[in-house]
Amino acid sequence: MCGIVGILGTEPVAxxxxxxxxxxxxxxxxxxxxxxxxxxxxxxxxxxxxxLHNLEDKLKASALKGTTGIGHTRWATHGVPNEPxxxxxxxxxxxxxxxGIIENxxxxxxxxxxxxxxxxxxxxxxxxAHLIARERAKGVPPKEAVAKVLxxxxxxxxxxxxxxxxxxxxxxxxxxxxxxxxxxxxxxYLGSDAIALAPFTNRVTYLEDGDWVALxxxxxxxxxxxxxxxxxxxxxxxxSAFMADKGKHRHFMAKEIAEQPEVIGHTLAEYADFxxxxxxxxxxxxxDFANLDRLTITACGTAYLAGLxxxxxxxxxxxxxxxxxxxxxxxxxxxxxxxxGAAIVISQSGETADTLAALRYCxxxxxxxxxxxxxxxxxxxxxAHAAIRTYAGPEIGVxxxxxxxxxxxxxxxxxVAAGKARGAISRxxxxxxxxxxxxxxxxxxxxxxxxxxxxxxxxxxxxxQDVLYLGRGVNYPIALEGAxxxxxxxxxxxxxxxxxxxxxxxxxxxxxxxxxxVIAPQDDLFDKTVSNMEEVAARGGKIVLLTDDGGxxxxxxxxxxxxxxxxxxxxxxxxxxxxxxQLLAYHAAVFMGTDVDQPRxxxxxxxxx
Length: 609
Ligand code: M6R
Description:
Blueprint: E1 3-8, H1 14-24, E2 31-39, E3 42-49, H2 52-60, E4 68-74, E5 89-91, E6 94-102, H3 105-114, H4 125-137, H5 142-150, E7 155-163, E8 166-175, E9 180-183, E10 188-191, H6 194-197, E11 203-206, E12 212-216, E13 219-223, E14 229-230, E15 235-236, H7 252-258, H8 260-271, E16 272-273, E17 278-279, E18 294-299, H9 301-318, E19 322-326, H10 327-330, E20 341-347, H11 353-364, E21 368-373, H12 379-383, E22 386-389, H13 402-421, H14 427-437, H15 440-449, H16 451-461, E23 466-471, H17 476-490, E24 493-498, E25 515-519, H18 526-537, E26 542-547, H19 549-555, E27 561-564, H20 573-592
Parallel strand pairs: 18-19, 18-20, 20-21, 21-22, 23-24, 23-25, 25-26, 26-27
Antiparallel strand pairs: 1-4, 1-10, 2-3, 2-4, 5-6, 6-7, 7-8, 8-12, 9-10, 9-11, 11-15, 12-13, 13-14, 16-17
Helix pairs in contact: 3-4, 4-5, 8-13, 8-15, 9-13, 9-17, 13-14, 15-20, 16-20, 17-20
The structure holds 5-amino-5-deoxy-1-O-phosphono-D-mannitol.
5-amino-5-deoxy-1-O-phosphono-D-mannitol (M6R) binds near residues 399, 400 and 488.
């Protein structure tokens, strides 16, 4: 997935395009490029492999003056991340940027090759540029040429196209990947999201799948997949024009970890009545929990692990059968869904392609759908029957931290509300659980005070080739999350396991070189987890025990290292134990010298399958 932007402006647009691309870098940072129409029929293009700052450096040497232009930040799908594969791509008078994948690019490319077309990149995008140019060569006018080619494309994509000979025209198209039109005064914009357009305008029209749009500086013409002219509503977005900064922190991830006590407080304030110690759901939540046969939760990556944690809560406290699946699996599984069923999809960005597809599947199966997102106005939020949000604020680091714990907070409140609605918990139990939840920010702040010690432990595990994380019950997803965090930012191989599952295979990996992070609050499963820990110790594994004072006193002695987590209600433990595993991953990555906020091969928002 990539970020695309286009501007029909009144001043030179290159700088504005780069400004917008900075806001889209979360979508990919393999290469970036800008093209502007410098004079009629003449396009200038500047592209650079790697991060956006490389493009910025190059642009200093080439003063682009064009007032019509498009730009792109790439996450490589077809072709290595080098300059020839960087967008924009050009053919004849056609200049194009693309987000997504053209799935039938191979037969289309073969067709063009037979006609003698010469390709200068390995991308699927260049095929589209040549197809449109072929229509133009036959005398087909610009927007009709795009419309004709769109009919031949399969896959999920968003496109922005300009024409060297058309100073006042930009064509955009959307099929399965987001695209927004920004309305200015005598200026028009295209962008992958409203955040990219925020420096220019807060008036945004979201295109629907199958739509294409022809923009001039003073007009907008939207057509649907059937070619009918239609009107899509204009929205006033709240996307901030200000870029988040790192404050006093070295990385966004460090800042986002540190913000957790505060943002959990904000999120709790929306979902809990502190005085009554009661769950308080926004009016958007229409799910009739009392009459539900089954809840389905689906998401990707860390958001999926928030869902997996919530399964334990919904089943235990609401006695509600809950199915959780990774969205990329769920969408093709053709899962039968019950008549009285509801589905929750979880996504920080609200743009993840697999999660969006899973949501659409649930809707097609007549499920009542609820989206839990951090970005209001995102595609997933707009498509679900109802959407609620976390109050994490912008999360810039690719590794999800505060969004995860905010998701857990909302899901915990939802589980309590569901338990109450189903008569599975009493009012007293609700008071106890919500009361416990409101303690989370205080406990989190205490954990953060121990960062120096956790950083020392991180340095010790950073030498390992493999790291295992073990957890049981509601802390099993935190073991998975710990391993995911470590892998994605430090590139150290790590796996999370259900502690009881270790003996069924993975224990063969244990030797004195393998650190084993054991997540074990002193709860009703503590003794079982300790038994699994002993099995590891007996085979020489280096145990890093994450537990509370009682756990350290009982079993801390023979472990390699200990990290203390405040004693709290068991309901809270995933929220609290998430922090030391984040800090372990963060400090291991800093020690390894990796690019913590933008780790290799990743992107913050994954809008391709
Ligand atoms: O925006 P989403 O929450 O839908 O993103 C889902 C995953 O791509 C995301 O959580 C990913 O796993 C993170 N990089 C993990 O830190």
